[in-house]
Amino acid sequence: MDRGQTMTTLFTNRSSFHTWRKSIPEHRTVGFVPTMGALHAGHVSLIEQAKAECDVVVVSIYVNALQFNSETDFTRYPRTEETDFHICTLANVDAVFAPVKSDVFPEDVVELLTPSKNAQGYEGADRPGHFAGVVTVVDRLFNLVQPSVAYFGLKDYQQVAVINDMASQLHPNIIISPCDTMREDDGLAMSSRNRFLTPSGRKSASLLNAALSKAVSLWNDGKCQSQKLIESVADDMSHDSAVEVQYVSIVRNGTMEPVHAVSENDVIIAAIVVDGVRLIDNMSFTNA
Known about the structure:
The protein has two domains: 9-179, HUPs (Rossmann fold, 3-Layer(aba) Sandwich); 192-282, 2-Layer Sandwich (Pantoate--beta-alanine Ligase, Chain: A,domain 2). Helices cover 38% and strands 18% of the residues. It has helices spanning 14-22, 41-53, 71-76, 81-90, 101-104, 123-126, 130-145, 157-170, 199-205, 207-220, 226-238; strands spanning 9-11, 30-35, 56-61, 95-97, 149-153, 175-179, 244-251, 267-274, 277-284. The strands form two sheets. The chain has a six-stranded parallel β-sheet, sandwiched between helices. A three-stranded antiparallel β-sheet has the order 7-8-9, covered by helices on one side.
């Protein structure tokens, strides 16, 4: 084994993982990357940041039924366990925790946590109950993994805001580390859903990044009224009939609070549907 290389261990049940976790000395920091599998380069970037900042890195792979709005979506979600573990091995992850449902939710009826007000609207409106499922499973995983720092991609901007709220209340000792969105060569935000796009749909979907980038450029040129910037994105997307715009909004950094006059670090968020696939993205207003 090369110097600095890590032997990755796969844990598929709660008890064996718990035994391993107890063996980690208290002074060592544990970085945690919770996932639903179908790993891609975006997840790897989270792992790399965790490895750079923590002594030990844990990746969980658990497809959480509670955050899906239909049985069809849950069933359709890609399961690529062998490939996922291989990716974690190449990334020198210390432990992959792939529990079964009874390890995470041993009770027959799960009592869902109530997410913060940041769960209202946008993804929360389109997917009722989604964020309740998200914070409930993340809370359970935090209890099992007991990380020092947990890493989440900012592509899911609203999710990060909601999880941050939950953690501040229930897990104040865990640092939530938001990480930059990773993008494909055409600018499309990396997502497990991208694999469902047709070649033409992929081309249409990539227009969103260009539209968001243009809005940020307009802001840099002095246009500060949020409505004008939102209209710019909507207008750019309207030129492609294959794109259905779900929403475009600008919110205060770290919250889902809409703003009227855009300041640095505010965030423009958007959701579109292409090929029947719902895609989300966002971009922060920063000075060029």
